[in-house]
Amino acid sequence: MKIEIQNLTKKFGAFAALKSISLDVASGELLALLGPSGCGKTTLLRILAGLEFADSGAIRFDGDDATSQSVRARKVGFVFQHYALFRHMTVFENIAFGLRVRPRKLRPSRQAIHDKVQELLNLVKLEEMAARYPTQLSGGQRQRVALARALAVEPRVLLLDEPFGALDAKVRQELRRWLRRLHDEIHITSVFVTHDQEEALEVADRVVVMNAGRIEQIGTSDAVYNQPATPFVYHFLGQVNLFHGRVEGDKLNVGGMLIDKPDGVQDEAETATIYVRPHMLEIDPRPNQHQHFRATIKHINAAGPQVKVELITAWGAPIQVDLSQERFRVLALKKETEVFVSPREIRVFAE
Amino acid sequence: MALLLKKRSVLPGFGLTLGFTLLYLSLIVLIPLAGTFLKTASLSWTQFWETITAPRALASYRLSFGASFIAALLNSIFGLVVAWVLVRYQFPGKRLIDAMVDLPFALPTAVAGIAFTAVYSSQGWIGKLLEPLGLQVAFTPLGITLVLTFIGLPFVVRTVQPVLEDIEPELEEAAATLGAPRWRTFRRVIFPTIWPALVTGFAMAFARAVGEYGSVIFIAGNMPMRTEITPLLIITKLEQYDYAGATALAVVMLVVSFALLLLINLLQEWSSRFHKVN
Amino acid sequence: MLNQATVQRRGRAIAAQVKTEPAAVRWLLIAAALGFMALFVLLPLAVVFVSAFEKGMGVYLASIREPDALAAIQLTLLTAALAVPLNLIFGVIAAWAIAKFEFKGKNVLITLIDLPFSVSPVVSGLIYVLIFGLHGWFGSWLNEHDIKIIFAVPGIVLATIFVTFPFVARELIPLMQAQGNEEEEAALSLGASGWQTFIRVTLPNLKWGLLYGVILCNARAMGEFGAVSVVSGHIRGLTNTMTLHVEILYNEYNSAAAFAVASLLALLALVTLVAKSVVEWKTKQKSHVESSPSVQEEIA
């Protein structure tokens, strides 16, 4: 199902949780709402579910207005951050709940309910756990029960609020890959909320980066990571080095290094901020033909796939450079030595 | 996210349940209470004042408040000891004692009244021992104080106990590593933490004791001016069909109760704030 | 330089000092606590049962089987059977409104619900006399229509409802607040109606709190004396509850009979305490399971 969101706004007292949000979710897509806590992502998800109502704006499900529809009428599957499993019911009863509460006319037969629950238990790989109570399950298992319960009613859309937020790191990683595979199997339009960039980038077809009630950028994982639209996205997704430059004619002066003024900077601007990802910086023991500046190595962390080198620039700013292990071995870097740093790719935002 | 909690809920039934709550509350509690205040309007201000400041009434306040105060004080001391022992030490019968703390809540007051009278009357188990010493308990203010101590027993224990349980051992260990002797640790570290709960418990025990009737009338002897508590005076006036007089005294009691309720609410707020900081 | 053994010894001494007081102080405090409890709680309780059986089993049984005693027991049971369910229904409804929704004046409402606890029992009875008594607001109207509330069973039930009013509500409100709204929201999102959500999701989660409230409410309903005393009129065999019957017997110097009936009430108190402890133990156990580390993680 396709979801259209138009100009949604929502206030809690004086606090504006959503400021005119517009967004389309394509049918069968797996979309991530990514942002820091308090950015409005959960509010947006709850409004989509009908657990919360917007002050203004519209929501359309497949073209039909759903803005003021009740949660019951919307037929959405909602997976809560803390699972919200019915604690007095077994796994089986939890999954069967949505079918059992249907009006008599629409209620499947006992056998049909049983078959459906078994099918879902297979899908979430919890066949052995049907008779257990939620308290007897691990966090990851509870989350899968919550998912199966939401899927049992054959929702038009699946909404997940921080689905892996309460799990420990390893389980989290396994479960999100499993979710991706599951989505590839059943292709239900899904929106999930997360504050974990890795999770969003790894699982989602498209990522919506939110901040302070607004959408900063919508795009594929590749696009939001490699072409951040705003300084916020740069900061939020991955690490970034900041340099403050002074505008001098058609050049930018960054600590003595002159670079061509990029298009984004207006003529009248006096200063600009340059954003460079750590792996987009190159280290050389000697000056090279590229634009460069001097820095002193302060700390080297060689554990992991990339070597993280922390340096202090000649003008006293700390920066980080990520090198491949091979490159690091070739350079044979030592602490407290002076090197020449040159950026391969930069983004400039005017101040 | 504290802000999310202030949302309009999607759960149904708000109007219906709140409406019913207010209706039932009004019918059972608010309207009858308000009616009592209105009833005093049938008295002129001077009549009202004379009724509530009559010597017999004043004597009853002195007894009710004085005995309640001493009982609440006794409860503060022994309640603290009981709570401390229950939280900190292991000894045989601990769980039984813990359960028995709530007996005054569960035992009908009339039963408590006749039981205390039986224990402390001149032929009673303890009264028998005290009489040769010239100490009379039953039918004196002392007896009233004892039975009020029983009535208020759970309040101090049950407000102090959870606070004591929550004190982190690190707090005391830190004090000890800083060289504080045990007594000083108690006075400087533990006592300030439980103090608000202790005061709250005191106020609750006091409030309960002031209004108590059932347990007191058996042991009090009920002599006007000497061992007549205010609730009994109300009953006496009722039995003489002096509705206005009874109502006037009831209003005094209600005002005192409401003031105490307000005080207890403030104390609890203070206590919980203090509790969280620690 | 201190050798290691000295350091260890001193360390242990400090640790012991930190954790507890000197043994003498400890035993003194335990003795004080036990002495206080024995004097104020166990002794009066023991006296009830001893006095009840003072004149033998025959007198005891006769005192309980006597028609007035039976009528009193019946009235007490009837009163509790009316007051407890009414306050139970009220408690559940009030808790739903207060715990599940945000609205202004909520704290005032909670305080008002607690109000009956701080009103003297005598005043609790009096307020109904002022309304329904012969000289009360509706007194003459009720008299004309030959409806008796005061000095009759309805007055007793009303006064009992008043004094036991807050028990269930005040037990359920914090419980429901702690449980939050998520399970209900999940049920609604799965297509359940409001009523289905309440019956199938909310109510089962409340059962222990509900039971706890009912136990306390019942104990007070059966044991109330002051409020009932004001509205009852003390008509033997008609408007005497068990506690009032105890009073009458006691004032007639029929001590054995008074204590016999009182022993039933004391037994009720003991049963209440046991039931209360069981419920507390059950809920503690349940929350313990919920907070215990999860079962081994296993992911397909």
Assign the CATH architecture of chain B: Orthogonal Bundle
Number of separate domains of chain B = 1
Unreliable stretches of chain B: 1-7
* Strand percentage of chain B: under 5%
Shape, principal axes of CA atoms of chain B: globular
Q: What's the CATH architecture name of the largest domain in chain C?
A: Orthogonal Bundle
Global structural class of chain B: mainly alpha
Query: What's the shape of chain C?
Result: globular
Please outline the major beta sheet of chain C: none
Helical amount of chain C: over 70%
Number of strands of chain B: 0
Low-confidence sequence ranges of chain C:
291-300
Rg value of chain C:
26 Å
Summed up:
The complex is a heterotrimer of chains A (351), B (278) and C (300). Chain A contains 10 helices and 20 strands.
Properties at a glance:
heterotrimer, A: 351 residues, alpha+beta, 10 helices, elongated, C: 300 residues, mainly alpha, MetI-like fold, 14 helices, globular, disordered C terminus
Could you walk me through the main structural features you see in this protein, from its secondary elements to its overall organization?
The complex is a heterotrimer of chains A (351), B (278) and C (300). Helix content of chain A is 27%, strand content 34%. Chain A has 351 residues and is an alpha+beta fold. In chain A, a hairpin with a 2-residue loop joins strand 12 (251-254) and strand 13. In chain A, 41% of the residues are buried. The model of chain A has no long low-confidence stretch (mean pLDDT 89). Chain B has 13 helices and no strands. The longest helix of chain B is centred in the last third of the chain and has 35 residues, at 243-277. Chain B has 278 residues and is an all-alpha fold. Chain B has a single domain, classed as MetI-like (MetI-like fold, Orthogonal Bundle). Chain C folds into two domains: 1-52, no CATH class; 55-286, MetI-like fold (Orthogonal Bundle). The longest helix of chain C has 37 residues, at 255-291. The N and C termini of chain C lie far apart (60 Å). At the B-C interface, helix 1, helix 3, helix 4, helix 5 and helix 6 of B face helix 1, helix 2, helix 4, helix 5 and helix 6 of C.
